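Appendix B. Chain record.
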Amino acid sequence: MHDLHRAPADAAAETTNFDEVLDRSTLSTVKWEMEIDRTGNKSLLGFGTADMDFRSPKPIAAALERTARLGHFGYPYKPNSYYDALIGFYKRHFGWEIRREWIAHNVGIYPSMRPLIDRLSVEGDEIIYQSPVHFQFRNIVAAAGRVPVANPLMLRNGRYEFDFDQLSRCVSSRTRLLLLCNPHNPVGRVWSREELARLAEFCQQHNIVVVSDEVYCGLLHEGAHFTPFASVSSEALMNSVSLLSASKMFNLTGLKHSQVIAANPRLMHEYLEGLKRDTSGYGGSLFGHAATEVAYRDCDGWLGDLMRYVAGNYAFAEAFFKERLPRIRVRPTESTYFMWLDLSDYGMSHQEMLDLFETRHGLVLNYGEDYGPGGEGHIRLNIGTPKSVLAQGLERMAEALSSHER
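Structure tokens predicted for this chain:
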């Protein structure tokens, strides 16, 4: 059968101009256009929502164009080439051999969590999450009638680590799940094999199932090595469910497609049973399937180019803060296109920072208080943007903090 999703070899070789500032008059995004409508500020700069301001790889766009030209948009079927691409990506990059029978699907990472929560716990049970982490970790647990229990990460010598002593105190007879973020959003840690093995052993001993969000796994800075949680031991493999997607790596969040990996047949059964309660992802996204296959198979070079560009932005911003805003502490990162900034030296509340940066200076940022205990006084800055846009944002931040100090 002819592979409609495979890009010509010359398309895969084309590079993205990450310096290009996109014409926003043709776009409609949450990250920019929604925020401009919400605030009424047409000069606003968006550094919040976890999307990038870059075009996705050209082979992906070509695959979507080929799919659109066929003019048939019914329920999609995943061909063998789709599974080969997915399995190949995780083996090639991380040495993790995923078997086809371990793979299920959904429309996103957070929608994948709810069926697992519904089937592996009951109302009133406790679910641990490790803050500061994306607010949806806490929200989805609470919305399901379970009790979200924060086990804040520990800062040691400026580096975030798991706090195993506190984790022991978090566990009760009602603890059922632990939601892991690996790599961690927003702090940027890529957990080591040793850290994950210790966590796996702890959860195994306490009969706690690990649900691991690994959506940022390919967004690695130089020297960082990602370890899939399920790959650290046979116990970890059988006591966990991994949530994957090409969405964050290749800027595909609008295409609504993700993978759920469970080697344990019982956990896979519970996930699939949980899906019956909410059929919103039934059938899946035709365009999400097409984009995902090409992303996993043909876009390694683009991903490498992307992270070199993001690293350049990080170095640029870090130097800016050191010279112009030395009171901001930059937490070192190993992954993602975020910077996690500690502004606690300025003594501002969440509302004061919001008023200063957004209302008075037109900067949309993400504020640490929304990420749970340990996030207070911090900001998540999205640097997945052209350097010229980042430079404008940094200047506005400097102006804002200068006015605050006067």
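Further analysis of this model is presented in Appendix C.
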